[in-house]
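Chapter summary example: a protein plus 4'-deoxy-4'-aminopyridoxal-5'-phosphate.
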Amino acid sequence: MFESLEMTHPDPILTLSEHFMNDTNPRKVDLGIGLYKDKYGDTPVMESVRIAESFVVDSAMDKIYKGSSGLDGFCDVISWLLFRERSSLIENGRVLSIQTIGGTGAVRLAAEFLKQIDPDKGVWVSDPTWGNHIDIFLHLGMKVSCYPYQSGGGGLNFPIMLESIRKIPEGDVIILHGCGHNPTGYDLSKCQWHAVLEVVKERGLFPVIDMAYHGLANGLCDDIYCVELFSDHLDEMFVAYSCSKNFGLYRDRVGALVVLGKNRDSCVKAKLHLSRLARVSISSPAIHGALIVSEILSSPELNRVWVEELSRMSLRVKFARGMLIKEACKQGCDDAFRNVSNGVGLFSLIPVGREDVDVLREEFCIYMLDSGRINLSGVNDDNVGYIVSSIKALLG
Ligand code: PMP
């Protein structure tokens, strides 16, 4: 059976990381995988996580199974984190969460649920988007199409985006990046979110808001503007939430699928269906990281520490973005970094072709995704000049 398999390729992002680790050049720069890095290029365990984790370890009485929907306390704090300003939705049972294996698990569970409801439902993602959005839905046999997102010259092409989503067939699914769009870094303004909401209502689309960078774009409150807005005007939606970046819990695989329903009964039903789907794929999620997040979000003191840390991280990313733009101006190649000035959050796309990316990696030891996506937190005082001069040398 295995001999007849066609060759396939490993995941390009994870492979890139491996190549970077094995590169012995001291000048090497990692702008690849989406990890937050501090100014030393490290991704240390957050202080709030360290404290909560030691408490979790010390107070563990057992490690018995939890149910398929995960840790109730975790589900509650995530619902609260997103809907604290809309607490009546929680009180009225219109919001329920289910624990998932990171944000990927949340998107996957959403996809399985939507497929179960209607396998012929179309799914619409931004062009470009996080590659796994496309792969997950395609893998389940669903039809995936794109709505345009960025303009040729850089920046968000909102009129074209809106025009295109207005043509999406009624009842289809639309995936929206809640904040820190991956890979462009272009987020919608409040006014643009209102315009998208109108079209979503008009066409009866089902939104799945992917919230993988909460707190890392414009801060904890502003980053969930679309979630709050949509919940004020829609009966139903999903939010796929990841705790990987904002809690730095990448490999602990902590996330949630948050359900907004029309009423308590429909929400309970949706959560039961989701739990059954979870049962046949993962049985039950990993609890350790979820305990850490619940501890942080339910202790006022730890919550304060976390909020401060996260805002420092977000400031550092903003600072790195500014530093790159300033250096590009200094070296007279700001055009190549024009996209960087338009965005927020961890990512930006620089206008390099596939071959340029290979040259940057092989000759300059600068690692980025094939699409030209760079992780801005990989930029620091020591490497900013080198990054800009290398890209300038390449692009001429
Ligand atoms: N959605 C988007 C847009 C992402 O960029 C990522 C992480 N790269 C995820 C979801 C998944 O995150 P996790 O690592 O929590 O599975």
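Key point: The chain has a mean pLDDT of 96.
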